[in-house]
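Posting for a labmate who doesn't have an account.
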Amino acid sequence: MTEEIVIEAGRAERHYWRDLWRYRELFQVLAWRDIAVRYKQTIIGTAWALIRPFTTMIVFTVIFGKLANLPSEGSAPYAIMVFAGMLPWTFFSSALADASNSLLGASNLISKVYFPRLIVPLAAVGVALVDFAINFTMLIGLMIWYGFVPGWQIFALPGFVILAFFASLGPGLWLTALNVKYRDVRYVIPFIVQFGLYVSPVGFSSQIVPEQWRLLYSLNPIVGVIDGFRWCILGGESQLYLPSLGISLLVTLLFFWLGVRQFRKMEHSFADLI
């Protein structure tokens, strides 16, 4: 049965979140389109999703683990510790970059028909989740290679995946809205991603941060996400610092609220600006 859509003054505001669910098929179409475009006419296909985190893991393991001789967490192999941090970071950086450019890539669709614009960046973040799933298979292979068995903490991993989703979606929505009005933002995003990689505990453990700076360091919301991933994957080899996780959780919720607020505030002008 075909559902009838009624367009009337003020309806979009009243039924916005209900419409977001009603247009879920459009979300699936956009997400599948982005996946197809990403790997279209590529020789090695989805292996491209593995190359970047794998090469970064090798570089970080050599520089931080061998040359700088930084400690791992417990007796866990340094490569697994790095890759456990690479997983959420790669998801965060891909979701942030793809979401921020998503509205400009769908300009023809946005300027012609009504639908909740929030679907477009959500579909971009969904594609990043597919890449995350591909990268997780590499982590499994790495753990088999080293003979490393995770503990019961691995069952808490879905909770930290959800936290990574909100940590990336909040800033992503804010940058998406700004990128429509100020095209300079697209030049700032690669700098934010590159800078964030080195100030986040991706190539090293956050346990090396001096105790007096741990809470301040946790204002970076991805710190709590990475520490949580390592706690789940490394099991008893990694300790979860709850005050740091609490601060990262609060900052994530704040950024998510600000991102949705900014996006909804500017959404009515997207068609004109694009």
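Reply:
Got it, the structure tokens are right above this. DSSP finds 13 helices and no strands in the chain.
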